[in-house]
Amino acid sequence: PIELSVPFSKQLLILFMTCMNLLSTNLLNNAFRSNISFWKGMFGVPFIKQSELQNINVCNQIPVILLGVPNGYLVDLLSPPIALVVISMVTGLGSFLIYSSLQFRASPIFYMIAQVIYGGGMSLSRTPMQKIASVLFAGPYVSTAMSVNHTFSHVASISSNLLSKMFGKLYGAVITATLFALFGIFTMPICMYLYAEYTLVASVKSPTRVLPPIEGLKKLFQQTNIFYWLFYFSGCFVDVSAMTFKNQESEIFKKHFGQDEVNELSQFSKIPSLFGPFLALIVDKYPYRDYFLLLGCICRSIFSVLVLNDKLTNYWWVALARVIDSCVVSVFYTAWYSFFGIFLKKDVRGLGMGLNQSLGAFFTFSLSLLTKRFKDYSEWITYFFLGFSTFCSL
User: Fold this and answer.
1) How far, in whole angstroms, is CA 268 from its chain's centroid?
2) pLDDT at 201 over 50
3) pLDDT band of 239, cuts 50, 70, 90
4) What does the alpha-carbon distance between residue 25 and residue 188 come to, in Å, rounded to a whole number?
5) Of 182, 336, 350, 369, which has fewest CB within 10 angstroms of its CB?
6) Residues 330-362, buried b or exposed e (16+ Cβ, 10 A)?
């Protein structure tokens, strides 16, 4: 029998709190993804500048590009619970700035700055949260707890679509976004509670020497080879395509569907993700990660060609395509992410995953800027990313 470091009843409470943290930070971010094309005219921004708000979610990538690599080092240096509290304060500050922007009808640049702070804190909090969870959920149910926690992030996204649709009709865009922004501030007391629970079972001081980033990068490049980076970039561009599509889904589907339908189509893509733990069993039973990677590249390419060329304009055909794409991509993500946990050694694993995250954020940011700058060639730019990805897989 494995002894529990935290009583089971308290583990349930901690699990509930971590799920509420995901809900508080995901509501606003996902609402902007699915509704910004419909909401931007109601935020008090002059019509000529409204297009600047379209890529507000891309601002999340800037802190990840700059801090993805040193993030793991800083988390270990400060200790995960302290880092989580600090980052939650940053996220809460970002939520408050978005709230202020909505109340005072700020300029687009102020919305962008607020989103950089809010979205950056939300993205960078994953590393310390995962490390804290591995301690607080230690015992026979650690895998189940981590799986439930990951799956709940998709529940939070679906909830955002449902609430955006309901509150949008009742109160309008500004009040709906304001409520989501205020709810995002609750991440601070939740993370402080997790900090308190962590100190009851473990020291906040790091027990081992923290590997400096430069030394860690040298070891990382010594351990990897050309096939490792081919595998990474192949999956990276599929991930870039998926993230870019999420950030621009309201603009892409606005041509053919209304706001309620766009929110419903977004939900169709997230429902298969609720069964992620079961889809992951496919990879565990048949660990042919290279084939799953190629399948993800091909499926994503076909989906992109159909959507970007307006071949899918029927609501139910789009819904079916999103469900199929989501199922395949869920298996792809399991195969892709688990590869790094297996391949990278423990002393450089955090740094390696941080570098992967930074590169992915950089390419997502670049693709969004390129498609915005060269609108007439946006489809071909996307095809290049996916084509290169498929080539790497082959």
Assistant:
1) 17
2) yes
3) confident
4) 10
5) 369
6) bbbbbbbeebbeeebeebbbbbbbbbbbbbbbb
How far is 296 from 283, CA to CA, in rounded Å?
13
pLDDT, greater one: 136 or 163: 163
- Read off the pLDDT of each residue in 129-146 and give the average, rounded to a whole number: 74
The dihedral region occupied by 110, where left means phi > 0, alpha psi between -120 and 50, and beta the remainder, is alpha
d(CA 76, CA 80): 6
Output Rg (C-alpha) for the chain, integer angstroms: 21
In this prediction, residue 375 carries a pLDDT of 63
Say if CB 172 and CB 42 are below 8 A apart. yes
245: exposed, middle or buried (Cβ count in 10 Å: 0-12, 13-18, 19+): buried
**34 vs 167: CA distance, rounded Å:** 14
Angle between helix axes 315-343 and 226-253 (nearest 10 degrees) is: 150
Distance CA 379, CA 308 (A): 6
Question: CA 132 to CA 214: how far, in whole Å?
Answer: 25
User: pLDDT tens across 31-48, in order?
Assistant: 888 888 888 878 877 766
Q: How many Cβ atoms are within 10 Å of 166's Cβ, its own excluded? A: 13
Of 138, 150, 149, whose CA–CA distance to 198 is shortest? 138
Q: 78-81: long-range contacts at Cβ-Cβ below 8 A with a sequence spacing of 24 or more?
A: 79/204, 79/205, 79/206, 80/127, 80/128, 80/131, 80/132, 80/135, 80/198, 81/128, 81/132, 81/194, 81/195, 81/198, 81/199, 81/204
Q: Is the pLDDT of residue 262 over 60?
A: yes
DSSP 44: T
Q: Which of 72-81, 201-210, 242-251 has the lowest mean pLDDT?
A: 201-210
263-318 pLDDT, tens per residue?
888 888 888 877 766 776 777 788 888 888 888 888 888 887 777 777 667 888 88
**For residue 255, what is the DSSP state?**
T
The tokens describing 159, both together, are: 């909830």
**Which of 257, 393, 242 has its CA nearest to residue 303?**
242
